Amino acid sequence: MAASAACAGFFFDAEPLCEPGLPALDACALCARPLGRDSDIFMYRGDTPFCSEDCRHEQMQLDAIRARRSAGRRQQRCPSSRKVSVAS
């Protein structure tokens, strides 16, 4: 309890070190515009920063297109509606 009370007023102003592979919050993931500490940051998928709702929406549309294309390729390779005739 004494340790938590001692740490309660101690703050770091520096940015925390990010885990490898996670995008930093210093630039928009789509247009690479620098993100300021005093500007709004629009997040997508939990850890991807964007400078505006427009950039975030554009990325969401691109992801939806990729998902549809990927689903179409899977369906072409492995159609589930194949009819199999059984000879008696």
Automatic annotation (TrEMBL):
Pfam families: zf-FLZ. PROSITE patterns: ZF_FLZ. It comes from the Eukaryota. Residues 23-67 form the FLZ-type domain. Residues 68-88 are annotated as: Disordered. One of its GO terms (molecular function) is metal ion binding. Keywords: Metal-binding. Residues 78-88 have a biased composition (Polar residues). A zinc finger (FLZ-type) spans 23-67. Belongs to the FLZ family. PANTHER family: FCS-LIKE ZINC FINGER 1-RELATED, OS04G0586100 PROTEIN. This is FLZ-type domain-containing protein. It comes from Urochloa decumbens.
